[in-house]
Amino acid sequence: MNFLLTEDQLALVDSVTNLLRDKCDPLRVHKIFDTPGDAQFDAELWNALCAMGVPAIMVPEEHDGLGLELVDLAIVAEALGKAVAPVPFLGHALATLAIALGGSEAQKGKWLPRLASGEALATIAFCEGKSGWMPDAWTLPGTSLSGVKTLVPNAAEADLIVVGTADGLALVEKGAAYSCVRIDSADRTRPVDTVTFDGAAADPMPGDAQVVTRLMDAAAVLLAADSFGGAHHCVTMSVEYAKIREQYGQPIAGFQGLRYQLVAMALATEPSRGLYWYAAHAWDAIPDKASHAASQAKAHLADTYLQVTRDTVEAHGGIGFTWEHDTHLYMKRAMLNWAWLGSPSRHRLRAADLAGW
């Protein structure tokens, strides 16, 4: 049995990685991160990803998509995580998947081709209050929406918001009765908003509770993949720095204490790749295992990423604490990954419930 990526999947990763190498160097990310006012996203990079077909990965072929699987989308998320790419990938990918899974034929026909091409930008609104990520906490009514959603990715720029309501999912188009306030969050590579709905007209989606569960699981997998990509880059970055930074006349890579730390970072990160790969595969092929695997992957990799970024700051010494260095970009990304969709402890409890504990 082959547990590796296919040649097509490897080619997809190479294409995205090469694009990011050309259009998403660290200086460019810092420039967007440091832009005064409300951070948005790198429109040029996003348009290039759209031209490559990234938003179309899980859109059915009959709606101008590629008709691929979650594992294909997840390996792209890993590549974007390695580069801390400032693009609206997460919200757009989940909103597109929501419509593909649970939209009516009219909704799919209207939106999926536009979302697949990047002509329209969409996002997803889950959280209510401080921690109401799961469907049992959603209180907004299903048609005329009044209430607040928070930590909504790029809501101010989106043409469409897929909203989690008390009755399932609903579509709200730009121009409806809602307002957005940008949150001054740590991770400026992925801006988030508080959205206040004031009787906003919504178009309910016919999908059932199973569609919502599938969507939440996919979100957990994409966050896990992004976290793995970021953690993997931090390990590589720390090792390379240790080889060139000298102290007392020799590279600091020769110091036993640092070597132990780098080994611990690598051992925490590399085996975790299989967690998100399996969770994505389970979502595609083993539905009864999907929710458990997704929550396990999100919980473990979010914790791992945050710890690895802390270790990365220490491994870089004084320069690791500076604004100009890349380390804080990854730590702040890890912080949002840790919090978005619920904390690791919340997902471990979910996994325990699903396992019958």
Mean pLDDT: 94
Strand content: 5-15%
**Which sequence of strands runs across the widest sheet?**
1-3-4-7
Task: Please report the distance between the alpha carbons of the first and last residues.
Answer: 31 Å
Low-pLDDT stretches are none
- The ordered string of helix (H) and strand (E) elements is HHHHHHEEEEEEEHEEHHHHH
SSE class: alpha+beta
Number of helices: 12
Q: Major beta sheet, specifics?
A: 4 strands, mixed
How would you describe the oligomerization state of the chains in this entry?
single chain
Shape: globular
Key traits:
single chain; 9 strands; alpha+beta; 3-stranded antiparallel β-sheet; 357 residues
Explain the overall architecture:
It is a single chain. 54% of the residues lie in helices and 13% in strands. With 357 residues, it is α+β, with helices and mostly antiparallel strands. Helix 7 packs antiparallel against helix 9 and helix 10 packs antiparallel against helix 11 (327-339). It is globular and about 70 Å long. The mean pLDDT is 94.
